[in-house]
Design a protein that fits this description.
The complex is a heterodimer.
Chain A: H1 2-11, E1 33-35, H2 45-49, E2 55-60, E3 65-71, H3 80-84, E4 90-92, E5 107-116, E6 123-126, H4 127-139, H5 144-154, H6 158-163, H7 166-173
Antiparallel strand pairs in A: 1-4, 2-3, 3-5, 5-6
Helix pairs in contact in A: 4-5
Chain B: H1 14-26, E1 31-37, H2 43-51, E2 63-65, E3 74-78, H3 86-95, E4 101-105, H4 106-111, E5 133-135, H5 142-152, E6 163-166, H6 182-196, H7 198-213, H8 220-231, H9 234-252
Parallel strand pairs in B: 1-2, 1-3, 3-4, 4-5
Classes of the chains: A alpha+beta, B alpha/beta.
């Protein structure tokens, strides 16, 4: 009996103090994905890789709004979103305290404005993404004036680009985009 | 065989909600939980049992897993609610004495999880039953489980809330490593992912690129040495050696 008591005292208490105290988590613990909308491009890379479709992107071309949404209730904490995000807008935090009484509390949304096509004036792509692409081109070594030219080309929606014949695309390229025949 | 004539979706009245709150107050130190597996992968079951083992010991709060829904105050539904499990799920719900608390447990229980759009799945416990508490996770860790019960019993407060951001005017996203050449960055990121897998690879590449971007290219050996001493992981040493070789090859040519 005495030996048993000694053993018990030696081993000590195995039970964690959580939830009365905070818990020590292992390094590399993948918890709640934390989203920083300021860094988000609305490029939809994360929504493409998300295995359970917890991340979704809804594009409203009528009103020119793209809505990004994350539903924690469906997230499997795989970290694919963190891996593919080009700007680091979404990162997995060690926070695991996600339980909620209401399903709506588990949803994060963000609205982004879409850019109008120069030719048909229809909304087609987020403006932030376009600016980022141009900055990347500049970093890759494209000279400044050429970047400005690219902008006018990139501000045309894919559909219009397809409609235009090769001749018109050339004209768009040299900075005369308005006279494109549809 | 018993046939079930319950409606497709059990809805609840306001009076029932009041009863539930009263129940939660009464059972504070003695919560009897019945677990219903509605087509899960058993990951959630393993975590539920992990949370009643000595390390996390849910029983110190009086939370006890019972073997029959007739004894239960709380029904924990795991799994994506397959078509075949809908009648048994309703049977367990009807067998539990009123008022009862229904918990949707795990990503599948909350919304169908990764199986949400399968043909044989209803998609979450709340597609069949009125759910009172959602515990997300795949599977929820034992602390997440205990947290869920703690907020239900009023020991802790709910942390998450719905968020909605709207893009501001003139928002611009900075480039991540503007001083590092694009092709070098791509080569480093690819190598790190090849060696360490997708998530860790990204982290390791970001760490290395951070050193490069801060202009510490000369002291990079020291920095990596420090890091490796801390991490004490031979695999990490090999990955950093490969990344550094790519950097040196790039700067030679």
């Amino acid at each position: 009996m005495l030996n048993l008591l000694k053993e018990v005292i030696k081993v000590g208490e195995a039970t964690t103090k959580y939830p009365l105290e905070s818990l020590d988590l292992a390094p590399g613990f993948r918890g709640k994905p934390v989203y920083n909308p300021e860094l988000c491009l609305a490029c939809a890379a994360c929504t493409t890789v998300c295995p359970p479709n917890a991340l979704a992107m809804d594009t409203d071309t009528e009103h020119g709004v793209r809505t990004w949404s994350l539903f924690y209730g469906r997230c499997i904490f795989c970290g694919r979103c963190e891996e593919v995000c080009p700007t680091g807008a979404i990162t997995l935090s060690p926070d695991f305290e996600l339980a909620a009484f209401n399903k709506n509390d588990l949803v994060v949304r963000a609205d982004f404005k879409l850019l109008e096509c120069r030719v048909c004036n229809r909304y087609f792509a987020p403006g932030k993404e376009l600016t980022y692409v141009l900055a990347l081109l500049e970093q890759a070594g494209l000279p400044g004036p050429e970047v400005a030219q690219r902008r006018s080309l990139l501000e045309v929606c894919p559909e219009c680009k397809r409609k235009c014949n090769v001749e018109s695309i050339k004209r768009v390229g040299v900075g005369n985009p308005v006279e494109v025949k549809r | 065989m018993t046939t079930i004539t319950a409606p497709m979706h059990v809805s609840e009245q306001e009076a029932q909600l009041k009863l539930k709150l009263a129940l939660l107050k009464d059972i504070r130190r003695s919560v009897y939980v019945y677990r219903v597996d509605c087509g899960g992968c058993n990951g959630c079951e393993i975590e539920i049992f992990a949370s009643i083992t000595p390390i996390f010991d849910a029983e110190r709060f009086g939370i006890k897993v019972v073997g029959s829904p007739r004894h239960a105050d709380v029904l924990v539904y795991t799994g994506a609610m397959t078509r075949a499990m809908r009648p048994p799920a309703l049977r367990a719900y009807n067998a539990a004495p009123d008022p009862k608390i229904v918990v949707a447990y795990g990503a599948c229980g909350c919304s169908g999880g990764i199986f949400h759009d399968l043909y044989c799945v209803w998609g979450g416990a709340d597609s069949v039953l009125p759910v009172d508490l959602y515990i997300p996770g795949c599977p929820p860790t034992p602390p997440a489980t205990i947290y869920g019960f703690a907020i239900a019993l009023g020991l802790l407060k709910q942390k998450v809330s719905a968020e909605h951001y709207v893009e501001q005017e003139q928002e611009q996203v900075p480039l991540r490593f503007p001083t590092v050449p694009l092709d070098l960055r791509v080569a480093l990121e690819r190598e790190a992912r090849r060696m360490a897998g997708y998530w860790q690879g990204r982290k390791i590449a970001d760490q290395y690129l951070g050193y490069l971007a801060n202009g510490d290219a000369q002291h990079i050996d020291e920095k990596i040495g420090e890091l490796l001493n801390q991490a004490d992981d031979p695999r990490l040493a090999e990955i950093y050696a490969n990344l550094h070789r790519i950097y040196l090859d790039g700067s030679k040519s």
